[in-house]
Amino acid sequence: MDTSFRAWRLEREDEPGLGAVRSLPLAPLRAAGGVLVRGAFAGVNYKDALSAARRARIVRRVPCTLGIELAGTVEASDDARFAPGDAVIVHGFGLAADRDGGFTEWMQIPADRVVRLPAGLSLREAATVGVAGYTAALAVDALQAFGWSPSRGPVAVNGATGGVASIAIDMLAGLGAEVHAISRKPDDGWLAALGAARVLAPQAVGDRPLENALWAGAVDSLGGEALDGLLRTMAPEGVVTAFGNAAGNALSTSVLPFILRGVRLVGINANSPMPVRERIWARIGSDLRPRHAARIATPIGLDGLPGAFDALLEGRHRGRFVVELRG
Hints:
By secondary structure, the chain is α/β, with parallel strands linked by helices. The chain has 10 helices and 16 strands.
C-alpha cells in the first residue's frame, strides 16, 4: 500500500521557479474523509501555466499543489454516491487556488465536487477533454440553446489551435457543422483533420459597424478586437459564445449587430453548478464526444510540466498537454 505520493507543488511564496515534484504523505488524505481519488491523468491549462510562472494571483494559499483538474478512480468514499473503482473527474471549486489541485497521484475532495464519468469515456479521454473541453461543450451547448444549428450556416472558431477551440472544432464537426477555423498560425492539415471545413488566417475587418454576414454561429476564445470582428460579421440571428480574453479584456463595438441583425452574445463561465456539470459531461460522453482525442493530446509526465508551461505561455503549442500521473 502506498504511504507517500508525488505532486507538482509550490512550497513557498518566494519560490522563484515553476514549482517542483514533491513527495507527500498519504496518511492525512486517507484520514480526511470525503472521496479519496487515485489520480490517473490531468490536462494542463493556460491558467496552470500562469499560476506556475506567478503571472497571475490565482493561487491563494501556499504550499499548494497546482492543476485545476484531475481524472482518476475512487479509492474510498464516505458518501454512498461513490464507490471504489468509480471513474471520476474533478475540476474547478477552488482547485489549485484555495485547495490542492490535480497534478497529483492522490487527491481528497468533498463528494459534492466530484463528477462520475459517463460510461465508456476513458480517464485519458476525460483528461484530454478536461476543463478545456468542458468549456468547449458549454459553448456548443449554448450555441444550440440560443438557436444555432448546423442547418443555419457555418460556424467560426477563432484562436483555433488553442485547447478549448480545437476541441470545439472537433465537437462542432461531429454535429455536422461547417466549421471555419481562424488561426494566425500556419496550418499543416492538423485543423482540417479535426474537422475544420476551412482554415482562415485572421483578416482585418473593416471599420463599418456592420460588415458582410459570414457566419450563423461563432465560438470566441480571444476577446478584444477579435470578438468585435466576429460580432460585426455575424448573419442575422447569429449566436456568439465567448469565454476567452487572450486578445484582451476590453470590447469596443457597436449596438448595430444586436439591434439590426439580432445577434446574440452569450458568455460562458466554466465554474458552473454541479447539475450543469453532470448534464454537460453526459453530453461529452455522447453527442459531444471528441472524435480525435488522441490527436489533440500531447502526453507528458509530471517532470514535463516546466516545458509545457513555457510552451503554453509562449503560444507554441496546439491542442492539449495531458499529464500521466503514474508511469
